[in-house]
Amino acid sequence: MLRRTALASLSAGFAALAAGPLRAQAYPSKPITIVVPFAAGGPTDLMARIVGERMAKELGQQFIIDNTTGAAGTIAVGKVARAAPDGYTIGIGHLGTHVANGSIYKTLNYDMLADLVPVARLPSNPMLVVTSNPFEAKTMKDVVEYLKANPDKISGGTAGVGSASHLGALAFFNATGAKYQLVPYRGTGPAMQDLIANQIQIMVDQSSNSLPQVRAGKIRAYAVTAKVRSPVMPEIPTAAEAGYPMDVAIWHGLWAPKGTPPEIIAKLNAAAIATFQDPDIRRRMEDLGQDLPTPAEMAPAAFGAFHKAEFAKWKKILEDANVKAE
Ligand code: ASP
Fold it and tell me: 125-242: what fold?
């Protein structure tokens, strides 16, 4: 009896030992879900779809896009933080969802630094100050003067308090001293549709979402929120050139629930790195004004350190500016 128990526990021990490497070898054996915190058709959804399609090829499994929208991404991030740490649920997010929200929302049911592990840093893009076509202004200065002369007459879209477009609007208010009314959407994909339809008149949005509409003549662009003009949109001046310096870039990233085995994180990270070595994807990203991180910057440890540093930097900025969700 004793011998049997000993044997049984010995074989259980072997099974446990084997489970580590086996589990990693078998991974992924079913589709992987990427939880996207904003609506379909917006910049984060676009990034998720590009990344998911290419990572699927690398890993031989489909990636399912799950748009869990609302509350500026906090519902989606909580969903990932509480998901099984088995590599089959990961989350995408950005400077807003994974940094700003941590300082703005006081009652989150997760800790975005402690309950998630970094998978890979993803590209970053500047923002564009854009208006609907009927909003007739020639320059950024005209936009600012109009807003100052007509306080709160104009509505602008955001993806909620703490979203990238909200941070962009705050940077705009800060730099110009002008204001507009903020209308929250479930993402700047739907907000862009309303901007095109002149339901709202202004937005500070990521170049990946706004530039294609500017090129199609559906909206107007006045300034880019980077220190220098972008080579893919050289005709758009920097906000600083108009006298309103702004320096906001929205980086994206991938995270997994805490406890996801490191060998699985390594597989996901390698697939993400391979994605951004693909010349077609690089071209597509760069054409939208995206800056691509290097493989070293994309590594989980480097991305984790970057995430922590960004968190500390923005905590101070947002607390000083007294930005609150309520
Ligand atoms: N990234 C958001 C989206 O995909 C927009 C935002 O954060 O402003 O809709």
Answer: D-Maltodextrin-Binding Protein; domain 2 (3.40.190)
